[in-house]
Specification:
Largest sheet: 4 strands, parallel
Radius of gyration: 36 Å
Number of strands: 10
Distance between the termini: 91 Å
Number of helices: 34
InterPro entries: DUF5682 (IPR043737), LolB (IPR050458)
Oligomer: single chain
Strand content: 5-15%
Pfam family, one: DUF5682
Strand order of the largest sheet: 1-6-2-5
């Protein structure tokens, strides 16, 4: 705005705004230029007066938020978000640029947080629409499940609820439903069915506005307050009393040249003629709690109404564009959309942009709007650029209409020591927080990636879920990790909460791990904690965790609990190899648990019902994998130890401690190596048990299958066991259970039947012999077994059964004369098999052209 400033009006300049409204922000900036005040008062917690000057630093980039939390309970917190297009942010920037004091006048956070803690829990209520101001205390809408943990966010600049209880008092819920949405009332009076569209037409598309716009909005709010009173916002009485007291203080210090930027809903109350005594009486006796306040980064996504933010807007990205676009906002917006679609490989050209602009302007004219709005531009994009599809439109809404912009705060901003250490660590590891979700692949053999992994695991242990582990799409080796990272503003509260454990991420994670180890009630909890400590590199916490683990392992006699604990423990030993961690003590406990499972599992399998047998089968499979991994780890550890500790030339070259450690590890490795044959013997015992009370067929069948897969059970012996299990003397349900254990679960049992027709024939003959009255009992078990197979496997089995049994024995062992199933050859053809051997050798990294005789021999 140009020209000399206007004369100051009588009394303070009350600028009633809608928070997060670019039209209000432009109007505030124009009004301050026209009538420069001596002080600017803003709706917000007065505790922020001490840190508002940080908004002028170059490293401060909105969206940001004021975060206030109770000093003794950081989980009780509230946010006051500010975007680049928020009127308060525009007023702060103007005041700091003109060296004008800025003060906040709303109820202190010390009171609002304490009041929120004393309120009854509020029911989840659908949002009543956007209030006229961000300061409108309407935490309507369901709480955000990813939000920080505080009972209710404080009011003012529409503080966001940090954590609402899902249990609701009926009276509080009724009060929520009675709250008035000023925008909805005014838009309905103007004949609009959409409050957002009405606001865009009368404010956002009308230029920068001026004093007339503020006067009109104040008159509308006065009429609404006369009709509805406080509109269901009971706390407004004390909040507005505090605002009036702060306004009186400013007028005594600066005279009438005071500008107040607040929610338009509060403008009539600030203009009321009340006494200071009456206002102080309203504030007397309010609860109070000691608080701390700081700036934290915010995101456009958390400004969106669908996130549960009561004063949220539907399109923060669109509003940001309207505020910052120097001219031709529609043309610039559609160019952004075209760029996004092109980046996602959609065929969009400049001609599409031109046609979309024309269509949006035409739609606006037909709908009687002064300028094409978001609805018109999206309709134009759908018709011109997306060929009527809503799939690209969803992408545009997510990336542009809402957006993933993450603000930044300067290092000089106040923060808890843990947050400062986290920031330093993020910078040293080149791991920048981002609002948009991204996937991060880590190679633990690299020092930087290993450090990133440790940091993410430590934060997860502290409850700061910046990253979540994901399944790797590449290598499945233990030296690979995949994470999905996404920084949410609420994580700042989680970091503040975790600050009670220590001043650095390492010390805090260590202290929390030790506390959890002492308070853990189950063996599985402690083994999981031990695994997490190894992943996080918390070597200082391991002694405490291991003592707790040994104590609970010694006292727990339940085989199921031991079986649950062993896999996590063995994984921990394995991670020690990958991450260079000494896991000798973990290996001792793992071997001890395995020994106790070997002794206790056979009697624990007797007399189980169907559900108990299914659970025991899962335990048995997990222990089988764990013992195999433990044996491999022990062998690898022995070899690695031999390489890293060569035989000394003399006895004096090795200290007594080193000799003792080496002997202990050698004994552990020998014990681990001996577990596998003993486990196989135990499985063989289970597979052959059929006395009374019998071991369930599900477990016996799975034991036989595990032995077969390990090469410790001959095919003839497997066929004999199946023949016994499916003999006429076995009850059909028990036989079906054995089949489910042997070939069920989608673990390759179908292919076993495809390639061994002896087993398929046994199953086929048994199924034919099942009496009619028993068939309905075994049918669910059989359907569950065979439904887990792939479609191709089921089709092949059907073809084999339709063909009937082979005349000359099974096709993998007979010659060419065996009859073939449709789509199969008559038998093994060595010449045809030899043709592919060079290619297979090349894929395996072997010499692709071996001697011809070797090739023929390999084919055979």
């Amino acid at each position: 705005m140009t020209g000399a400033p206007r004369a100051w009006p009588t009394g303070p300049l009350l600028l009633g705004v809608r928070h997060h409204g670019p039209g209000s922000a432009r109007a505030v900036r124009a009004a301050l230029d026209a009538c420069p005040p001596r002080v600017v008062l803003l709706e917000g917690p007065p505790e922020a007066d001490a840190i508002v000057g940080l908004a002028a630093e170059k490293d401060m980039r909105p969206p940001v938020a004021l975060l206030a939390h109770a000093a003794d309970d950081p989980g009780r917190a509230g946010f006051w978000p500010l975007a680049g297009f928020s009127p308060e942010w525009a007023a702060i920037q103007w005041a700091l640029a003109h060296e004008v004091p800025v003060r906040f006048i709303d109820l202190p956070a010390a009171n609002s947080l304490a009041m929120a803690a004393k309120k009854p829990p509020v029911a989840e209520v659908a949002p009543a629409g956007p209030p006229v101001s961000v300061a409108e205390p309407t935490p309507a809408g369901p709480p955000d499940p990813a939000g920080p943990s505080a009972p209710v966010g404080p009011p003012g600049l529409e503080a966001e609820a940090a954590d609402e209880d899902d249990q609701a008092a009926p009276a509080a819920a009724s009060a929520e439903r009675m709250r008035v949405d000023p925008l909805a009332v005014l838009s309905e009076a103007a004949g609009y069915d959409d409050p957002e569209r009405w606001w865009e037409d009368v404010i956002e598309h009308r230029g920068s506005g001026g004093a007339e716009a503020f006067t009109a909005v104040a008159e509308a709010m006065a009429a609404l307050r006369a009709e509805y009173g406080h509109g269901g916002h009971e706390d407004d009485t004390v909040r507005e009393a505090h605002m009036r007291l702060r306004l009186r203080e400013a007028r005594r210090e600066f005279g009438d040249e005071v500008a107040v930027v607040c929610g338009a809903w509060h403008v009539p109350a600030l203009g009321e003629r009340t006494t200071a005594t009456a206002d102080r009486k309203l504030l007397k006796g309010l609860p109070k709690v000691k608080t701390e306040i700081s700036w934290v980064p915010w995101t456009h996504r958390r400004l969106a109404r669908h996130s549960g933010y009561g004063a949220g807007i539907t399109s923060p990205g669109w509003y940001d564009h309207l505020f910052h676009a120097p001219d031709r906002p529609v043309e610039r917006w559609l160019t952004k959309v075209a760029g996004l679609l092109r980046d996602e490989d959609f065929a969009v050209s400049s001609a599409h942009v031109i046609e979309a602009v024309r269509l949006a302007e035409t739609l606006a004219a037909m709908r009687g709007r002064p300028l094409a709005g978001l609805a018109e531009t999206l309709d134009a994009v759908r018709a011109v650029m997306c060929d009527g599809s809503d799939v690209p439109i969803a992408l545009v809404r997510d990336r542009l209409v809402v957006g993933d912009i993450l603000g930044e705060v300067p290092e000089s901003a106040p923060a808890v020591p843990l947050q400062r250490d986290l920031t330093r660590t993020q910078r040293s590891l080149r791991l920048k927080p981002e609002a948009q979700e991204r996937e991060l692949e880590l190679d633990l053999r690299k020092e930087t990636d290993a450090g990133r992994s440790r940091l993410l695991h430590r934060l997860r242990l502290l409850g700061v879920d910046w990253g979540t582990p994901a399944v790797s799409r590449g290598s499945t080796g233990t030296f690979r990790e995949t994470w999905r990272l996404r920084w949410e503003p609420e994580l700042a509260v989680r970091v503040a909460e975790a600050g009670v454990w220590g001043t650095t991420v390492l010390s805090a994670a260590t202290a929390k791990a030790e506390t959890e180890a002492r308070s853990a009630k189950g063996l599985a909890e402690v083994t999981e904690l031990a695994e997490r400590c190894l992943l996080a590199g918390l070597s200082a916490a391991l002694p405490v965790v291991m003592r707790s683990l040994a104590d609970r392992a010694a006292l727990d006699a339940d085989v199921g609990h031991l079986a649950q604990a062993l896999p996590a423990l063995v994984r921990s030993v394995r991670y020690g190899d990958v991450r260079g961690t000494d896991t000798a003590s973990l290996g001792e406990v793992a071997v001890g648990l395995a020994e106790r499972i070997l002794v206790g599992l056979p009697p624990a399998c007797v007399g189980l019902d169907a559900d108990g047998a299914a659970e025991m089968r899962r335990h048995m499979e997990a222990v089988h994998r764990a013992i195999a991994l433990l044996s491999e780890t022990g062998t690898a550890g022995t070899e690695a130890g031999a390489r890293s500790h060569p035989q000394p030339h003399s006895q004096t070259d090795m200290s007594t401690t080193d000799m003792s450690t080496a002997e202990t590890r050698a004994a552990e490795h020998r014990a681990a190596d001996g577990l596998r044959p003993r486990w196989a013997a135990m499985l063989r015992n289970l597979a052959g048990r059929d006395g009374t009370p019998a071991t369930p067929g599900l477990i016996r069948g799975r034991a036989a299958r595990l032995l077969l897969d390990d090469g410790r059970l001959a095919e003839d012996e497997a066929a004999r066991l199946m023949g016994l299990a499916l003999s006429p003397g076995t009850q059909p349900p028990e036989a079906a259970s054995w089949i489910e254990g042997f070939i069920g679960g989608g673990t390759g049992g179908g292919m076993l039947l495809v390639h061994d027709e002896r087993l398929l024939g046994l199953v086929d003959r048994w199924l034919i012999s099942v009496p009619v009255e028993a068939f309905t009992d075994v049918l669910p078990l059989l359907r569950r077994t065979f439904s887990a197979y792939d479609t191709g496997v089921r089709r092949t089995l059907g073809e084999l059964v339709r063909r009937g049994p082979a005349a000359d024995g099974p096709t993998g062992a007979g010659g060419r004369g065996a009859p073939a199933a449709p789509g199969f050859g008559p038998g093994l053809d060595p010449d045809r098999a030899a043709a592919v051997v060079p290619t297979v050798r090349l894929l395996l990294g072997l010499d692709p052209a071996p001697h011809a005789n070797d090739t023929m021999e390999a084919a055979r």
